[in-house]
Amino acid sequence: MMFAGKAAARVEADRILAAFTGAGAEVVETAILQPADVLLDLYGEDIRARAYVTSDPLRGEMMLRPDFTVPLVQMHMAAGAGLGRYAYAGEVFRRQEISADRPNEFIQVGFELFGDADEAAADAEVYATITAALGDLRLQAAMGDIGILLSAVRALETSDARKAALLRHVWRPRRFRLLLDRFGGRQAMPDHMQALLAQADPLAGAPAAFGLRGADEVTDRLDALREDALTPPIPAHQMALFDEILAVAAPVPQALAELRAIAARFDGIAAAVDRLALRLDALTARGVDLSEVAFETTFGRTALEYYDGFVFGLYAAGRHFPPVATGGRYDALTRVLGQGRAVPAVGGVIRPEIIVGLKGA
């Protein structure tokens, strides 16, 4: 049975939480009912669509906690944004529209580090602490690095507007691919956009407002489309290199070699690949056998959108969903919730009810 009873899951959660506090973490709590106005925008499309949202007459729009990380970052940044080492355990809530067999309420146990200047060491510590807490379960491990993709986009020879669009859609693989191919000249601008721009005055006879958008906003959007139509395509050699980056999928040592070879021809990702190498060295120093870990450049792109660097997942053999544990680096999230201040931050979570189910299988 994949999803065990809550009582057994709580016992397992307590065991994992004890392992995290043994690693020096302070146990923290966050409210189950969270303000939705700011937090929903930080989770990304998947969680936004699955959050339980309600309206409170005094507090406004609220939601049941869909994860711990975002409210924890908010708490840490409000407290001064120094060093932090935290652990937590509790329920999170997410609507399930694909299968009624998937739980809409489950327990997360997490371990999060803030403020460690040695990012490679912190990444390795979180991964090693999470895997140690899983005990002797035989799991498949996968890693990725969103930072490599972000660096590749920023290094493209194209307009800032096109880079911003690609960066906005990194976590939506299909949309990202469509935009990249259009910006690279492989696909034409959609017919409806071309038809709109072909009109002498697209707003002739139009109403003063279009839903929630005013005429000024629509005019700005049309100007952006005209500018984009005149922007030269991304050079073919950069498109080919980006294809190579997206195709990297191999055991970690081989993937690193492939990325180094690409970086030698695409300097824009060189620093990100160097950071990856430092992290892998730190993982090896902690006894992680990287030859048994799969690496994919695209791994983690359909997860929570606040990850912006190292990402990882641990799965039962032959089962890619649900993950037993996931995690990664989310420095950019601290900048958003810190109102411009930022600290290094990395963490991971474990699903104890899945562990109970695997042990009983």
UniProtKB/TrEMBL annotation:
Q: Which GO terms describe its molecular function?
A: ATP phosphoribosyltransferase activity
Q: Where is the Class II Histidinyl-tRNA synthetase (HisRS)-like catalytic core domain?
A: 13-199, 233-350
Q: Which SUPFAM superfamilies match?
A: Class II aaRS and biotin synthetases
Q: Is the keyword Acetylation in the record?
A: no
GO cellular component terms attached to this protein's record:
cytoplasm
- UniProt: L-histidine binding residues: 67-69, 94, 108, 112, 301, 306-307
Q: What is its EC number?
A: 2.4.2.17
Where does the sequence pass through the membrane? Answer: none
Q: Which UniProt keywords apply?
A: Glycosyltransferase, Transferase
NCBIfam families (alphabetical): PRK12295.1-5
Protein name listed in UniProt: ATP phosphoribosyltransferase regulatory subunit
What species was this sequence derived from?
Ketogulonicigenium robustum
